[in-house]
């Protein structure tokens, strides 16, 4: 388990993380989300003792990172896929890490096989593509067979097959009872990967909940309806106090569930061609809830935020 309490980090006059408290439990994949500049990378660095908090603390299994003996056996992390000496081979890089934490050399071959790098293990890491570097970083995180794993943008540079692999792999790690904490900007991927979310903005906690609850809290569920008798259906639904919008030769209904809509249509002898509930997406929920915490907006992002807000 990871537990942060009152975590604060200042860089001069800049407050990067502000009194941040949260916990990450084992047995699930927890996503760590926030707009650019929210303090995610700083927080992960403080978890690993790479940056010292200005105040507060974060513990892994009840201990500060610096208190861990042979820390790679407790926590594995991928924060920067290119953090490898370019002239070292993948195998040499992992062997060096293994020796530093008294990990058997045989484990190096195991993790190389796990991430699919056995065939290139003797090649210089400096010549690796971003996707191969990501796999090497994941191998390094797995080296000590740790109970706690941190990944920062782990699918960067991976092809679709690699993204599917890392998603299933994270689920397997969580199913084994491990603590899996992953930061990513790919919200569509996080919706498929993480069952729990910690969301921050401007260095502060915005939400800690299940992914399902986070989406449900922000997005209003609607029902899409298609019918050859749209004017009559619209009138019947409006009379029943539903909110109805016309969208591409169909109606989008809010304030009424699909069962009630079907009953109203049947009572008015109206034929339906489609009656499908529309649930909100993680992307919509994220943009709505974190909108006030975004520090850097382009014109297109501002326009997108307005479109999402209008759709809610």
TrEMBL record:
Q: InterPro entries given for it?
A: AAA+_ATPase, ABC_transporter-like_ATP-bd, ABC_transporter-like_CS, P-loop_NTPase
Where does the UniProt annotation place the signal sequence? none
Per the UniProt record, one Pfam family is ABC_tran
From the UniProt record, which GO molecular function terms apply?
Answer: ATP binding; ATP hydrolysis activity
Alphabetically ordered keywords of this record: ATP-binding, Nucleotide-binding, Transport
Residues spanning the membrane: none
The record ties this protein, via Gene3D superfamilies, to: P-loop containing nucleotide triphosphate hydrolases
- Please give the PROSITE patterns that the UniProt record associates with this protein: ABC_TRANSPORTER_1, ABC_TRANSPORTER_2
All copies of domain ABC transporter, residue ranges:
2-227
Family matches, as CDD domains: ABC_BcrA_bacitracin_resist (cd03268)
Give the record's family classification: Belongs to the ABC transporter superfamily.
Protein name as annotated: Export ABC transporter ATP-binding protein
Organism of derivation: Amycolatopsis coloradensis
């Amino acid at each position: 388990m990871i537990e942060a309490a009152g975590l604060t980090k200042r860089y001069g006059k800049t407050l990067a993380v502000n009194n941040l408290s949260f916990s990450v439990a084992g047995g699930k994949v927890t996503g760590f989300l926030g707009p650019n500049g929210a303090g995610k990378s700083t927080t992960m660095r403080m978890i690993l003792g790479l940056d010292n908090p200005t105040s507060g603390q974060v513990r892994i299994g009840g201990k500060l990172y610096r208190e861990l003996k042979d820390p790679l056996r407790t926590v594995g992390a991928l924060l920067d896929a290119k953090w490898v000496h370019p002239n070292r081979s993948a195998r040499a890089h992992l062997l060096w890490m293994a020796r530093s934490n008294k990990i058997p050399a045989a484990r190096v071959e195991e993790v190389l096989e796990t991430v699919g790098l056995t065939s290139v293990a003797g090649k210089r890491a400096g010549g690796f593509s971003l996707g191969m570097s990501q796999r090497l970083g994941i191998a390094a995180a797995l080296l000590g067979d740790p109970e706690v794993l941190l990944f920062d943008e782990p699918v960067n540079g991976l092809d679709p097959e690699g993204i599917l692999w890392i998603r299933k792999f994270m689920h397997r790690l969580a199913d084994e009872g491990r603590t899996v904490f992953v930061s990513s900007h790919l919200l569509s991927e996080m919706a498929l990967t993480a069952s729990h979310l910690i969301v921050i903005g401007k260095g502060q906690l915005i939400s800690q909940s299940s992914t399902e609850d986070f989406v449900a809290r922000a997005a209003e569920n609607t029902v899409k309806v298609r019918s050859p008798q749209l004017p009559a259906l619209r009138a019947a639904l409006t009379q029943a106090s539903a909110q109805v919008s016309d969208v591409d030769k169909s109606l989008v209904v809010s304030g009424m569930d699909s069962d009630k809509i079907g009953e109203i249509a049947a009572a008015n002898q109206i034929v339906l061609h489609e009656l499908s509930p529309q649930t909100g997406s993680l992307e919509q929920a994220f943009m709505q809830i974190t909108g006030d915490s975004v520090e850097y907006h382009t014109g297109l992002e501002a326009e997108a935020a307005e479109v999402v807000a209008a759709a809610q």
